[in-house]
């Protein structure tokens, strides 16, 4: 019997905590007093339903393009660049580092990415010139990592290159 009384007291205390009036010091009175008093229309802060417009105005929906989640490139602002543009961007970035002013350049080649987020190019070679190799490698690593996230190698067809076997077989000059 004492256990049931204790449980009843605990439920009463919980109910009192939930319903406790924390707005007692408000200017217009407490929430319990405002809720229990009859409302007059002049003091009500709720809008009158008769004053509301009959039609609900909604903004027109923007035209949505059909999206294919499996064809979407998930990289943020990936741009296509040619191999020459990539080589020039990397070389200029490395040359800005102190001690790397004599850096000559890099060679970029295409590669098959393992996943859609992987880059489709990699460094093939580096020409250091008289630049400090340690400083150049450090600058080169950060530059290549950044550019591999931002740039993709533009698609180049093998038949477009003058030394391809197709153009040589058709009588092209090497």
Instruction: Give a quick account of the main beta sheet: strands, pairing sense, barrel closure.
Output: 2 strands, parallel
Poorly predicted regions: 158-174
Q: Please give the count of helices.
A: 5
N/C terminus separation: 105 Å
The helix/strand class is alpha+beta
**Number of DSSP-assigned strands:** 4
Strand content: 5-15%
**What's the pLDDT, averaged over the residues?**
74
User: What does the radius of gyration come to?
Assistant: 36 Å
Order of helices and strands: HHEHEEHEH
Principal-axes shape call: elongated
Lateral strand order in the biggest sheet:
1-4
State the helical fraction: 25-40%
Architecture overview:
This protein has 174 residues and is an alpha+beta fold. The protein has a domain at 79-159. The chain has 5 helices and 4 strands, in the order ααβαββαβα. A two-stranded parallel ribbon has the order 1-4. A two-stranded antiparallel sheet has the order 2-3.
């Amino acid at each position: 019997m004492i256990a049931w009384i204790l449980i009843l007291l605990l439920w009463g205390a919980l109910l009192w905590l939930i319903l406790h009036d924390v707005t007692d010091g408000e200017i217009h009175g407490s929430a319990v007093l405002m809720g229990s008093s009859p409302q007059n229309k002049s003091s009500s802060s709720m809008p009158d339903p008769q004053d509301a417009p009959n039609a609900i105005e909604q903004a027109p929906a923007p035209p949505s393009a059909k999206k294919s989640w499996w064809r979407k490139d998930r990289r943020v602002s990936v741009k296509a660049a040619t191999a020459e543009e990539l080589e020039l961007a990397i070389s200029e970035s490395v040359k800005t580092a102190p001690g790397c002013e004599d850096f000559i350049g890099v060679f970029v080649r295409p590669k098959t990415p393992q996943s859609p987020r992987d880059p489709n190019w990699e460094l093939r070679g580096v020409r250091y010139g008289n630049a400090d190799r340690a400083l150049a490698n450090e600058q080169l690593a950060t530059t290549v990592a950044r550019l591999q996230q931002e740039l993709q190698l533009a698609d180049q067809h093998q038949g477009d290159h003058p030394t391809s076997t197709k153009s040589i077989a058709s009588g092209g000059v090497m």
